[in-house]
Amino acid sequence: MPQQTAPSSDAPRYVVGVDLGGTNIVVGVMPEDGSREIAMRSQPTRADLGADVVVDRICQMVEDAITIARAETGATREQFVGVGVGAPGPLDRGRGVVLIAPNLGWRDLPLRALIMDRVGLAATLDNDANCATLGEWWTGAARGARNVVGITIGTGIGGGLILDGRLYHGSSDMAGEIGHMTIDSNGRRCNCGNYGCLEAYASGPAIAERAREAINADEPSVLSSLVGGKLERITAQTVYEASEKGDPLAREVVRDTARFLGAGIANLLNTFNPDCVVIAGGVTQAGDALFEPLNAEVRRRAFRPVVEACRIVPGILPGSAGVVGAVATFLQQNQ
Amino acid sequence: MPQQTAPSSDAPRYVVGVDLGGTNIVVGVMPEDGSREIAMRSQPTRADLGADVVVDRICQMVEDAITIARAETGATREQFVGVGVGAPGPLDRGRGVVLIAPNLGWRDLPLRALIMDRVGLAATLDNDANCATLGEWWTGAARGARNVVGITIGTGIGGGLILDGRLYHGSSDMAGEIGHMTIDSNGRRCNCGNYGCLEAYASGPAIAERAREAINADEPSVLSSLVGGKLERITAQTVYEASEKGDPLAREVVRDTARFLGAGIANLLNTFNPDCVVIAGGVTQAGDALFEPLNAEVRRRAFRPVVEACRIVPGILPGSAGVVGAVATFLQQNQ
Asked: Which regions form coiled coils (chains A, B) (predicted)?
């Protein structure tokens, strides 16, 4: 495990981390002791330009990060031992292939080999939500925990599991699809085709949609004026802003979000009995307005000893958890 | 792991397994290679007579099992190396204490020490649902799997998790409380005080109750004649019987049970990505009438690669999984 890795010589080893998302690519460098983040940079993914262009951009960002990090640390190129990559979608970790990534329009792309060939370094590939969880565990909010559930809330809801100090991948690298947990078997339709998934209630777009529905039901709100009457412009972000301003409708939407998330998290507590749940993504901006009712719902639904064993915290590495975790996965797989 | 344990000498070692339930105590002996079950016996628990009497009975059954097994195998007393105990309720495994067992009326009972003192052998204590899962994995229906979810459906719904070939206990020995997963956040009230738990739909008593509700709603059924008009006598068992006879109401109740279980199991597939789910308990008597709609619901709700990675099977050790698993836990903890 990275936390327990001692430098193998006086010259510290460095690893490049890549966090590939549908909107942005983030790349940075860390020494193997995890003590700092170096040369952290973000660029738009521009998946519309095609896989070749995206892979080019990733490799260029890796080279740039190494150049900047060498200038900052005085390290030689040989001290850079590898690249950890976090990517969305079902993956074949063993072969380093992105099987399907709808947001990128990719299918069966051998991303690890492409990066290794171009950069000339060893590389590993893991799921982006797994990386974000491992990042928060290695140097962030879940530090010191043994069993961690990580939940990343954005356009979708992703999850990662650390059990007994290691990422748990499941039997076909698909573990942690927390967003598609049924919390209401006859409930709202989800993009996945099912009904009542957590994601259909608590993802960013679902939060915005529930707000629009409430406004269309003629409940008064400052939300419509915030978006100049164009309800389609409402996002989860505008809901948090209106909630902070005390708008009753927005506050109700945030409270409901907390209840849905609380039911999902209680399920995870009752089955995994983790010592830490770390929640990342825009939704954490809602602060206490979210976390207070969320904790109350978890206490209501999960067993007391399970609740007492667990802290539920917001992530503290919003811009870099994915990169930090990608570095950590590389180190866990190359000890 | 027991499967990989070779006998340490020519004289095989034997372990006694104890499965303590609210209704019955089952005790048996196995050699450390798991090749056979010896001297398997069951007696009523009679928890109403008090903890002392129950512990006496357990110890007497352990002694009897050793005597019978020695007569059958010619083994010496020294070849019996320990006792594995499976017991209900939240436990403190480290101290070997049953913290709370409502069905037994126990609180903070140091069961492991009591048995060790009386029998003069090393002992381990683990949760009964964990033991049942480990038993099906060691010599039963989940054999050969790496990641297993075990579900035991009786008066309640219990669960056990085997991840990467070992029992997963969670941060405070409470992992696997599958019965209290919310599948309908505004749904039926559960005995635990919450709403919409899987157990409130698919436990034995919940199945009987849903059948009674349908009859009270004036739906015709042979069920009422099966119990001589005394609806309170309907059990899950009578529902399965009526379903087998083709009674439409009972068949609908079984189909609904399958759908509820399917939603719960789909949640477990999407989060754990196991290669085997093994279902034990009376509900498996419903056979294909249960498993066909259950599989259909799982396919509808879980991701395809996750469904394809997993087989869902009934347990094949209905009388002895708990004992077999108790032996296996002893061996896993005493390698």
From this structure: none
